[in-house]
Design brief:
This protein is an alpha+beta fold. α7 packs across α8.
Length: about 500
């Protein structure tokens, strides 16, 4: 159970009924949970599903207070040494005393929710990156000498007896608390009474037969005038009905069991006319677009849009990228290269940017091969000459280190998708597609779409001496795979090779 406000997840409920705040809640109100701090290099491991181990926890104190005073299963937020914003939420695997007795080994926090997981990506249009809030760095001024005036000002004074025994503020506070609690209880009672009246559900809202017929009517509504009649019933189903379905259609779960039984009922109702060409081969020869039920049928545009957003969210893997954030100190340098203050730059990109700036302004000494800083670089690195790597290291040390979750849709620097044909036993052709995973595409979802759209056996083949897996689809499905990748996954056509192998026209009879 997830509780959302304006489509943004704010809390989720555990099996025992306990409410857990999401990262969006912790970023808005960071003080509602205690924190465990870990090192920034641990974040990629946590994002891959690992729990927070004790060696990765930065101690809160010394001795028994090293891990605070918490009970087992206490909700704990996790942040990084260079950023106080939460990157995950979990439960303590043991109490604080047990954690101390473990000797620095074992699980500290069982992670429930992490930056980059499906709960964080619940609404693709409202994704947020981790807010950058620097941790407070301790200085010598934070530890004044004992007995000094600064030290006396930092001492926390105990409450005075007359303040503790003052009856009037306590009574007022008690009345305020009682009034607030009664108001809250009244609001909850009204809410429960309101929610106790269930809405009348549609009589056949979620039945498989209704979903199938809605998809059938939507296919006729959207493509009625474009259907290439006569059309094979199997092609009509996979090319026009299946894409219109809000949920995946399984004919075996309907009362029809077979496509022919469903289409026979649609023929009886007057939507279409089907003619049997040969035994087992049926074709749709005409469609009644003036049918009253079809004329009055209204496609649910909102449902289709939301399901499309969900499908888009599930089609791609998210990738955690290490970034450097342009700080106030480095803003003067990066603004000359069209980077704004606060913008994230991938780690591998910083050196390329510095090299581009140095080459553009001819700052390399031809004799020593060292970089001579100009006025802009002198503010960051001083007057000392150095190598390009040394210069980059100095610049990155003055930038903020962070992580950002990026979609797998970025195609820069990725290998091209290669489509090819092969022959298996019995002279049967199969379509082979490689380098798909490099684009962040979830293979299981792609296999489902291939099975539904091409109505062909689809599997994954692991080739020897290769890291990436290969998709294998029965038959010549080159054009179908190309259309699926370019239209559904939005892969640029220039990134796909092998379209010339697509089957064109009908087979020539001898």
């Amino acid at each position: 159970m997830v509780y959302c406000v304006d489509k943004q997840p704010m809390f989720f409920e555990l099996d025992g009924g306990q409410l857990v705040p999401t990262l969006y809640t912790l970023w808005a109100t960071p003080d509602i949970l205690p924190y465990f701090t870990t090192h920034e290099g641990v974040l990629p491991k946590l994002s891959n599903g690992a729990d927070l181990m004790l060696p990765g926890v930065v101690p809160l104190g010394v001795g028994h207070q090293m891990y605070g005073h918490f009970k087992k299963d206490q909700l704990i937020a996790v942040n990084l040494t260079n950023n106080s914003s939460a990157v995950g939420v979990g439960q303590l695997a043991r109490s604080s005393d047990d954690l101390y007795m473990c000797g620095g080994h074992g699980v500290a926090v069982k992670m429930l929710h992490m930056f980059g997981d499906k709960l964080w990506a619940h609404e693709p249009t409202m994704l947020q990156q981790i807010p950058l809030v620097k941790m407070k760095t301790l200085t010598v001024d934070d530890f004044p000498a004992l007995g000094s005036p600064d030290h006396q000002r930092k001492v926390i004074k105990a409450p005075q007896p007359e303040q503790a025994s003052s009856p009037e503020p306590i009574s007022q506070a008690t009345e305020s608390v009682e009034l607030e609690s009664s108001t809250t209880a009244l609001t909850l009672d009204e809410t429960s009474e309101t929610s106790a009246v269930p809405e009348a559900p549609s009589p056949d809202e979620a039945t498989p037969e209704t979903l199938l017929k809605k998809a059938f009517l939507a296919a006729l509504k959207h493509n009625g005038n474009k259907l290439p009649l006569p059309l094979l019933t199997s092609n009509f189903f996979r090319l026009y009905v299946v894409p219109e379905a809000v949920e995946p259609i399984d004919l075996k779960k309907t009362r029809y069991k077979k496509l022919s039984n469903f289409l026979a009922e649609m023929v009886d109702q007057g939507f279409i006319v089907v003619r049997e060409e040969t035994k087992g081969v049926d074709k749709i020869i005409s469609v009644d677009l003036e049918h009253p039920e079809l004329v009055n049928f209204i496609t649910d545009v909102k449902t289709g849009a939301s399901s499309g957003a969900t499908a888009e969210k599930l089609l791609f893997h998210s990738e955690l990228k290490e970034m450097y954030i342009v700080s106030d100190v480095t803003a003067a340098f990066f603004t000359k290269l069209n980077y704004k203050r606060g913008e994230g730059i991938p780690v591998g990109q910083v050196k390329k940017i510095v090299r581009e700036y140095v080459s553009k302004h001819n700052l390399i000494d031809p004799q020593t091969k060292l970089v001579r800083p100009d006025a802009v670089l002198q503010e960051l690195c001083g007057n000392r000459e150095g190598t390009l790597s040394e210069l980059t290291s100095i610049i990155t040390s003055k930038m903020e280190h962070s992580y950002q979750m990026c979609s797998g849709k970025d195609t820069s620097g990725k290998p091209q998708i290669q489509m090819s044909l092969a022959t298996r036993s019995g002279n049967k052709k199969v379509t082979l597609v490689s380098n798909i995973e490099a684009y962040g595409i979830i293979m299981t979802e792609l296999i489902k779409l291939c099975k539904q759209g091409a109505a062909a056996s689809t599997s994954i083949v692991k080739l020897p001496h290769q890291k990436h897996e290969q998709l294998q689809v029965q038959g010549n499905q080159i054009r179908f795979i190309y259309t699926l990748l370019t239209e559904t996954y939005k892969v640029p056509p220039k990134c796909i090779l092998g379209l010339e192998l697509a089957k064109d026209g009908k087979k020539k009879r001898k």
